[in-house]
Amino acid sequence: MNGKLVLVRHGQSQWNLENRFTGWVDVPLSELGIAEAKKAGHILQNMRLTFSEAFTSKLKRAQNTLKFILEEMGQAGIKTTIDVALNERHYGALQGLDKKETAEKFGAEQVHIWRRSYDVAPPKDKTEFNPEGISESLKDTAARTLPYFNSQILPLVKAGKNILVAAHGNSLRAIVMDLEQMTKEQVLELNIATASPIIYDLDASGRILTAQGR
């Protein structure tokens, strides 16, 4: 029996709504984000999926998305693992800044490079929303996310279990890149919509048999 891997980006967050860089700042879902999460649960419920386990990040917008999905499906009691490896990409000194104002300050081209290049991280300056003085590129995010995914999540799917992962745009981009063997150029064009389930059927070797939502 083949396992299913379902990837869901969190619903719209309050800072998505306000067009601000979020990263590791622990902001809540917006009202629309809550509705999106419940809708995702309804979609998965209609597919009659039953999950063995779920995984999510340490950020509450992903955790609450998972909670609303599982409640909608009547599966709120399943084993859930929370790990920082699934966190969003850390946006460094950009965290908390308005995206339009940031483009006006640094130039649209520079901001596009920070947001869309594979291996260029935003500035690491310490700020109110980056007291640690760290930052990540997509390459850095993949280096954090993929070892966890490949050791803790993928083996369960290969064993025939249905697994739900509620995480973030960039941690999920890293996973999709790895599963679909995308090039660095291809992944830069990949967008993960909020609360829109991506459903993979995988065989025992981890090969994709079918993919929905992509």
What does this 3D model show about the protein?
- Helix content is 41%, strand content 14%.
- By secondary structure, the protein is an alpha/beta fold.
- The protein has a 6-stranded mixed sheet with strand order 3-2-4-1-5-6.
Count of individual helical segments = 8
- Residue share in helix: 40-55%
Average predicted confidence as pLDDT: 97
H-E string: EHHEHEHHHEHHEE
Q: Give, in spatial order, the strands making up the sheet with the most strands.
A: 3-2-4-1-5-6
General shape? globular
Structural descriptors:
214 residues; alpha/beta; 8 helices; 41% helix; globular
Summarize the structure.
The protein is of the alpha/beta class and 214 residues long.
Task: Give the secondary structure arrangement, pairings included.
Elements lengths: L2 E7 L4 H4 L13 H16 L6 E4 L3 H14 L5 E4 L16 H8 L1 H9 L21 H21 L4 E5 L1 H11 L4 H4 L10 E5 L5 E5 L2
Parallel strand pairs: 1-4, 2-3, 2-4
Antiparallel strand pairs: 1-5, 5-6
Helix pairs in contact: 2-3, 4-5, 6-7
